[in-house]
Structure formats: C-alpha cells, structure tokens
Specification:
mainly alpha; Growth Hormone, Chain: A; two-stranded parallel sheet; Sugar_transporter_CS
C-alpha cells in the first residue's frame, strides 16, 4: 500500500533492539485509531489556546493604551505581535528537545511555561513588561505548534496525514479568529487584564488534561527506553537501538545538532526555503489584518471595541470552508495520484491544490481594502475577508503535510523551520501597517499587498514541477 512504512525490527543476535514485527502494538503507527485521535485531539486542544492568546488581546489594546498613557501606534501593534515573535524563537529549542527527550515531556514543560506567563501579562505594571511577558508566553505557546508535526508523523501513515493535519491545523488558524471576538467583549466589560486571566484558566485546565492523558509517541525515544530496559534485564550492555547504531554522542552534541537542524532545512533546502517564505508572507498578512481590523471598523464604521471582534468572522468562515475542502480532497488526491504513478508516492503530490487556493488570497485585499476605503456597508468588507481565510488554509495544510512527508524522521524540525520563518513575518509585518496605511490609504495599501500575493502564487506550482528532482538530487544531510 502507498502509505505503508517498514519499521525496523529487533535483531538481538546482532545486538540491535527494535520493534517486535511490523504489527508491534507498542509502535505508535500501530496504535488503535481511537488512541491516535485522542492523542492528536489533546495536542490540538492546546494548539487552539496558544494562537487564541496571540490575538485575543488585540481589541483590548486601546484600553491598555489608556492605562499606560501610550500614544505610539507602532508600540500598540507590537504588544500584539510580540507574542508571535516567541513562536519564532521557541521552535529552535523545543523541536530538537522533542526529538531527543520525547514529545510528551517537552510539550508538558512548554505548556506550563505558556500558562504561567499569563499571570505576568495580567499583572504587568507597564507596557515594557507586558511586551516581555508576552514574548515569553509566545515561546511556551510555540511548543504545541512545533511538536504537533512530529506527533502526526509518529502516529499516522501517509494516506491519513492529510486529515490529521487538517484537524491539527484548526487551532493555529481558528484560534486567532476566535480570540478577538471573545477579547473584545471581555476587554470592554471586565478590563483588558481579564483577557489574560481567562487565558490562564483555559490554558491551565487543558495543560493539566494533556499532562494526565498524553502518551509518548516518538519511536526513537520509545526504543531507547526499551533498549535501556533490555540491557538491564538481559545483562547485555552492548545492545543498541536500531535508530542509534552509530557511536553514541554526548547530549550536548546531540542537542547542538538538533538546534542547527531546522536552520539547515530552512537555508540548505531550496524547497523548504521557498515554501517557508510563501507561508511566512501569507501568515504575516493574517496578523497584519488582525492588528488593523479593529482600527478600521472603529474609525470607519464607528463600532465599539466589543463589537469589532465580530468583524473577524469573515476570516473564520473562510477557514471553515477551506478546512472542509482540504480535508475532503487532500488524502484522496494523494491516493489517486500515487496509483497513477505506479504506486510510487511523491511528497510533491500534496501541492497541486495550493495553486488553486493561492488565487483566493489576493482577492481579499482588493475587495476588503477598497470597500473600507469608500466606506461601503460594513457587511461588504467582512464578506471580502472570506476568500483570504479559504485560500490561507488551503495553502497551510498541504505545505505542512508536504514537509512531514518529506522529512518524516525530522518532522518536528521541518515544522520548526516553517514556524520560525512565518512567525518572524507575523510579528514584524504588522508593524509596517500604521505607516503604510497612513501614506497609501486602505485602498492602495491593501492593493499593494494583493499585488505581492499575486506574484507569489507560482511558488507551490514551481515546487510541484521541480521539487522532486531537487529533493532527490540535492538531499539535505540532517544527522
């Protein structure tokens, strides 16, 4: 079958410890379906709360500005986007740690770190400390985004990864949309600090649930534990894991290699670099919208801050439409193309749909920008946000699944490369929004972004056409 993967088996005569056959029930790929989806649901739950925290504060910024007597609009935007800067830093450490020590302990520590910094944000005495605390919260919140790709690679075979990625991607895409809707009402009625108290309560409940119910899925870590136990049980200190047959390295050396691995993928693989650049640009556009929608609907349509959150519904509707479409076509397309390719699977089979979805992204910026510029009825710019949500989810999920399929052993590092690059854009691009819109206006300012989005549409098409040849002829050495 196209998705079957041969797992390395034990060969104790030669001193190698592996799995007890291809159907070993301890192998994560062979877990019962209910357990697989439970484990994915656990990580998806915290993956909803973390991105929720990234944007939930956005409608409350004006109240924070009043409290701290801030009049600098760039600083205001930075208090929102700095959280995403933490997403750029955290994966570089958390990804290699999860491949060395396992998914479960690293995710648990990251969740705890994310949760505790919500207290700092809620009690921040000034705007500088709030920015610092938001940054640290973002580092902890990046754990679920980074480790999720590794968990999907651990648990699911190729023909199921499209659906698994669709479920897992709900959080990172819907969280930033739901956040401002809740945050607007909460900030106006209870104060902006209560945004962080509510995040603390939700994050703590889910983090505790994840810690209780979660199970290790990294096959290398599981076999390493098995090897350690058999060495003692059989009194055979020479036994080695099938995944680690080379001479053992120090933990510092292993960690250093792990830290460099996402950067190697990003800068030595032209495929990963191009796809990361494209995803980063689209992600930056998302946060640019998130940091400006409130101002647009307050200034242009005279909406109250609590109602402004409802303007994000357009993006959310687009996400739901895109999610349903991708979940339906992704795995089915891969199975069909694999059969047509003499049952030979190529990761590039994930990408054709990206070109179709990419066409929808620029539509929003022309539609939404000029509707707001000419103060057309408020429903028109909100509807104009739907194509962006639809196109974005149709770009994100296939690219993430492609990286997982291309580097299954280092899926966490591959997702870390994507997360780091896109988070830099998500944190920095919104900072240019106030001055850009001040000079160009909403119409031409958004149109400029739309033209750039059009220019980048061919990226996934180029990777689909030439990616397989580049990947095979220029492999990236990651060990």
């Amino acid at each position: 079958m196209a998705g079957t993967t041969d797992v390395p088996e034990s060969d104790l005569d030669n001193g190698l410890v592996g799995w007890e056959g291809q159907d070993d029930p301890e192998m994560p790929l062979n877990f019962p379906q209910q357990r697989k989806w439970l484990l994915l649901s656990l990580i998806s739950a915290i993956t909803l709360i973390s991105p929720l925290a990234s944007s939930m504060f956005a409608p409350g910024v004006i109240f924070m500005d009043e409290d701290f007597h801030n009049t600098n609009t760039t600083i205001s935007a930075f208090t929102v986007s700095i959280f995403v800067m933490g997403y750029a830093v955290g994966p570089l450490f958390l990804s290699p740690l999860s491949e060395i020590y396992g998914r479960r302990p690293v995710l648990g520590c990251a969740n705890a770190f994310f949760t505790l910094w919500q207290i700092g944000c809620a009690l921040a005495p000034n705007i500088s400390s709030l920015i610092v605390f938001r940054f640290f919260a973002g580092i902890g919140g990046s754990g679920c985004l980074t480790i999720g790709g590794g968990v999907i690679s651990d648990l699911f075979r190729r023909e199921q990864r499209g659906m698994a990625t669709a479920v897992y991607s709900l959080g990172p895409l819907l969280g930033p949309v739901i956040g401002p809707i809740c945050g607007g009402f909460l900030a106006q009625r209870a104060g902006w600090r209560w945004v962080f108290w509510l995040l603390l309560i939700a994050a703590a409940i889910i983090a505790i649930g994840v810690e209780i119910l979660n199970k290790e899925t990294n096959p290398k870590v599981l076999i390493r534990r098995k090897t350690r136990n058999l060495r003692k049980l059989l009194n055979r200190p020479e036994l080695k894991s099938v995944y680690e047959q080379a001479a053992e390295q120090s933990k510092a050396s292993v960690l250093l290699h792990g830290l460099v691995r996402p950067l190697k993928l990003l800068f030595r693989s032209p495929i990963v670099f191009l796809l990361s650049l494209y995803m980063a640009f689209v992600y930056g556009l998302l946060y640019l919208l998130f940091t400006t929608i409130t101002g647009v609907f307050q200034g242009t349509y005279n909406w109250e801050p609590d109602i402004c959150g409802l303007a994000y519904v357009g993006v959310g509707l687009g996400f739901f439409l895109g999610l349903g479409t991708v979940a339906k076509i992704s795995d089915a397309t891969v199975v069909r193309m694999t059969k047509a390719n003499n049952d030979v699977f190529e990761p590039e089979m994930r990408l054709p749909a990206c070109v179709f979805f990419a066409i929808f992204v620029p539509i929003t910026f022309f539609w939404y920008g000029w509707a707001a510029e000419y103060k057309v009825h408020w429903i028109v710019p909100i509807i104009g946000l739907i194509p962006f949500g639809f196109g974005m989810i149709g770009i994100f999920m296939p690219i993430q699944t492609y990286i997982i399929d291309s580097f299954p052993e280092y899926a966490a590092s591959g997702i870390a490369a994507l997360t780091t690059s896109r988070s830099l854009f998500g944190a920095l691009l919104p900072l240019a929004a106030p001055s850009m819109y001040a000079k160009l206006g909403l119409g031409w300012g958004n149109s400029l972004l739309g033209f750039v989005a059009i220019a980048m549409i061919p990226f996934p098409a180029i990777i689909y056409r030439f990616g397989g040849r580049i990947r095979k002829n220029h492999p990236v050495k990651l060990d």
